[in-house]
Fold:
Amino acid sequence: MTAARPAAPLVVDPAGHVTVPLGFVAGAGSADVRGHGDARLDVAILYSREPCASAALFTRSAVRSATVQVCVEHAQRPAPSGLRAVIVNSGNANASTGPQGLADARRMTEVVAATLGLDPREVGVASTGVIGRPLPIERIATVVPGMKLSRVGGARFAQAIMTTDTRPKQVAVEFSLGDASARVAGCAKGSGMIHPDLGTTLAFITTDVAVPANDLRRWLTETADDTFNMVTVDGDTSPSDTLLCFANGASGLSSSEPDVAAAFRDALEAVCRHLARSIAADGEGAGHLIEVRTVRAPDREAARRVARTIAGSMLVKSAIHGRDPNWGRVVAAAGRAGVPLVEERMSVDFAGVRVFDCGRPLPIDEPALRQALAAPEVSISVDLGLGEAAATAWGCDLTPEYVHINADYTT
Amino acid sequence: MTAARPAAPLVVDPAGHVTVPLGFVAGAGSADVRGHGDARLDVAILYSREPCASAALFTRSAVRSATVQVCVEHAQRPAPSGLRAVIVNSGNANASTGPQGLADARRMTEVVAATLGLDPREVGVASTGVIGRPLPIERIATVVPGMKLSRVGGARFAQAIMTTDTRPKQVAVEFSLGDASARVAGCAKGSGMIHPDLGTTLAFITTDVAVPANDLRRWLTETADDTFNMVTVDGDTSPSDTLLCFANGASGLSSSEPDVAAAFRDALEAVCRHLARSIAADGEGAGHLIEVRTVRAPDREAARRVARTIAGSMLVKSAIHGRDPNWGRVVAAAGRAGVPLVEERMSVDFAGVRVFDCGRPLPIDEPALRQALAAPEVSISVDLGLGEAAATAWGCDLTPEYVHINADYTT
Structure:
């Protein structure tokens, strides 16, 4: 992505949130969506005070949630008017909920529109949680009108969209050009049912750069392909995957200037990459972030497939949980990726150690390799020896905790 | 498979083994392949005393083990002379082992050939276990000449090919036509790295029916597609998958007679189905066999994809481990199978209970459903409402034990 061009330096705040860019406010409340009777934050709103351009990517699942169906309708409104706000709930995906689910998702946008003085079609909607249960729509509708939206509300927003996440995933990036500065920020919901396909898990990105909707969509798609779409936690693409991006121009900088466009795209990629890595690192039950790099692949698609297949292999994931230097599983996973390979040209570095070289196993210092596997981040690099293409995928180890979390999710 | 034709009744012996068909002998020994210094059976030989027809299917992985490469060479000899014997070791896959691995695999066939007075190219070879470690070839070569092969050796053969299997997987089937009778038997190695693609895990099938090699290969391929290739334990296709079938005609019955051919094919399918279900039921750490049935799919490939995707979903597998009636994950898995679906036409039965009907969730009796999920075999049925095609896939639940087993496999 970062070709040879003079790039504006980025300042990254890993605790920054979606209301760091100018002109955005957010807030969250508790509607007891799960019905547990607790006060957990589970409904959130993000809003641009000024009209803005927006871009949206959604799950490629053949079974889209009711919420996604309504959000698609609203996002596909004729330009130039884009989405200006989004309401999100956690605890219930509003998926496989039939006609009532569609009515409930529409109602969520209507109550936000009434509160903020918008057209309902200017409001996006996203839901995450259990599939196949009716939404407690009255409780959600009740909490919206009194919700306080503010310039510091982004942190609460990131918190309210979590399900089994152990921590919020958010980041803000700022760049300066001359006397002017601008920002891109984002937050995401991760953890389980993570295997994005075009869209991603729930993720929301804001920027105060002015970007035309068409460019925003194109750049978001390209960036998502190299970031969100290279994350796998469990291979299960969700019917709810949604990625929304809002660009309101409040900084005064516009992507019509090439250096702003370049800096914006760098910042966008930094935000998406940070969120993608955060999702993998906080995969359900995960103890390790796994970064898989494929190099010298025959083409980009082959590089992506091999990297994703290795990152998603249950046997590789289990081995890394156990700090087991069982690198043969990496070769085996590459072999089933559906890409023609020549084993005699393959080499593998496992946790930074060359273990397989042009088709031959090398003697390994097993205690040292086990030690390297104890790091919170484990890298796997596979040189296919066949071409020039490269790709990176992120995953996490498979642990007994993953099973515990998912064996008892609805209760 | 069983079209409307008068079928000879099958007598099934779930403890029957590969030397039940006439003319086959087998044996096993201990070569301490794992290097643990124990006397575990880990090398086995199966042999037809008379020349026989054979058919072989192998992994579609782009990275085939050295053992598979040698077995492919030998299996592809010009007809009519087929394989007559096979040597198998567990504890080491002889995969990703470079040129030495190829030499070792050839040596295994040579030592069997010398002992039995065969051409090495009449001997197949199969290996299962850890990837990327040199085979202790001298210990294997030493154990072969003294190995006792007998008519009751099939049980030891089935035992010797196990890795993390908790029990041998074998079955024998007999059918009678008039005064004559014939048999088909098989055994398989299952448990982990199970997601067959064309071939399967290690499986060996014997019959004393005379079947020409071409028919044997065609019928084996068709049967494997509906049985072994519909099993998934962890989505990881192995570089070692091998399915060998031997037909020696010792019963005096020949598939050139249509009623024998029909009975043989029924028996072959019964054997493969039994082994496929046994592999799923004994998946690593598994507590439940999961049988997924797709009906009214637009075509057979769609039916197969949806069934396999559901059976392989980590979230579905985790839910069943936890007896969690979280059927929404079934719909979500179907949605990401890469098949166009219409949710309004979909219905789902979960453990025999209709939970989703033409796109609408039904109220469920959760305690009763939890009770149904306690059974050792859990059925999931998905009606796509789009056509006439159907398919069945088998899988198992995902448990903390799976992770424990695979987190510490090489040690």
About this structure: Residues 1-5 of chain B have pLDDT under 50 and may be disordered. Chain B has two domains: 10-281, 289-407.
